[in-house]
Amino acid sequence: MTDLSRERAVALDAADPLVSLRDAFVVDDPELIYLDGNSLGRLPKATADRIAQVVRDEWGAGLIRSWRHWVDLPSRAGDLIGSTLLGAAAGQVVVSDSTTVNLYKLAAAALDARPDRSVIITDDDNFPTDRYVLQGLAAQRGAELRVVHTDIDDGLDPDLLRDVVDENTALVSLSHVAYRSGALLDMAAVNAIVHDAGALVLWDLCHSAGSVPVELDASGADLAVGCTYKYLNGGPGSPAFLYVRDELQAALRQPIWGWFGQRDQFAMGPSYDPVPGIDRYLAGTPAVVGIAAVEEGVRVLAEAGIDRLQAKGIALTDYVIELAGAWLPGFDLATPADPRRRGSHVSLRHPDAWRITQALVEAKVIPDYRTPDRLRLGPAPVSTGFTDVWDGLSRLRQIMADRSYERFSGEPARVT
Ligand SMILES: *Cc1c(COP(=O)(O)O)cnc(C)c1O
């Protein structure tokens, strides 16, 4: 019989090789169970000190002289993310702008690189900002946006993709791990389907960076973007990353012709002539304080190692599924049950999911609510313990037993 006792959770924590890294994070309230590290990662202790140092010493004392080393920060942080988490050799990743803006830059660059093709492909379960950016690009250019249907709990079926990609396809843009269900796509298989048709592929890695190994170089990916404030713990609104495969860098040109991509930038020359390397995908002055925080967040993950993070993510999400199966009969699993087919979060479906989410927050358990009727639980592998999962789900079990969620309104809030 399965052991559902809290003692087992304590024993699993004691055997966890990453347990000591939980001390790398600020824990303000030990009673609070944080199951939303995939929306906003926790604050690493080192980040508060680093930001104070950047602000006080580098800005306050160094003033403009600090640009001598700040200027390398976007590519230094990019190489750290690329080499430790994304399977990308140096010189292919930079940190800049937001995921939304980077997606626009790279999607536009890809469309310009295939001028005789007019179709963009994505899926109907892709993250909203991705779908809107692609809709906008299609509208601006008179291109066709083809939208593949995806099962919102099980993820995209690559065979459906194969059926719609053709010789008129310029770009396929997909999320590697689905934001709602956590379903994980086979990157190499999708890259092969897209390349067979002569198109380019652009990946959104927001929910995979830091949760599962990503093999951008080895799988043959062309382009990728992703957030740093989720599993990478860069802080609210921290700048995003982008990847362009080195063979494509000099040939593709992004639509924002900014001076940070310019050859011999401080010659202040008359017309745009971008550098051949990854810096040509920068636009304007980088957000130095934000990128410094990204470096600190990624350093903690680098210390853990992505293979151990994935193993822990699987163990934690398996544990959520096991406890939910035993304790929460009114919930259905809305995530692939096979751990090789998901990232590090789990969604549970319940008709009262929004009211239950509010009751959980009152009981000091922080999940996410996602439409329609999904309770999303993201136990970030680097900062969440098995006892956190046990405590969080036993509070949820209590809320269901005493029906305390019925006191809450079903009206949606501005931010869920
Ligand atoms: C969180 C998330 C985003 C957010 O993009 P921003 O530009 O940072 O607001 C984009 N795509 C996916 C898949 C996400 O999960």
Could you list some keywords that capture this structure?
alpha/beta, Aspartate Aminotransferase, domain 1, 12% strand, Aspartate Aminotransferase, domain 2, single chain, 416 residues, 14 helices
Overview of this structure, please?
With 416 residues, this protein is α/β, with parallel strands linked by helices. Helices cover 39% and strands 12% of the residues. It contains 14 helices and 13 strands. The protein has helices spanning 6-14, 45-61, 67-70, 73-86, 99-113, 128-141, 158-164, 187-196, 216-219, 246-249, 288-304, 306-327, 353-362, 386-401; strands spanning 33-34, 93-95, 119-123, 144-148, 169-175, 200-204, 223-226, 241-244, 332-333, 346-349, 365-366, 368-370, 374-377. A seven-stranded mixed sheet has the order 2-8-7-6-5-3-4, sandwiched between helices. The protein has a four-stranded antiparallel sheet with strand order 9-10-13-12. Strand 12 (368-370) and strand 13 form a beta hairpin. Bound molecules: pyridoxal-5'-phosphate. The site of pyridoxal-5'-phosphate has 13 residues, from helix 5 and helix 6.
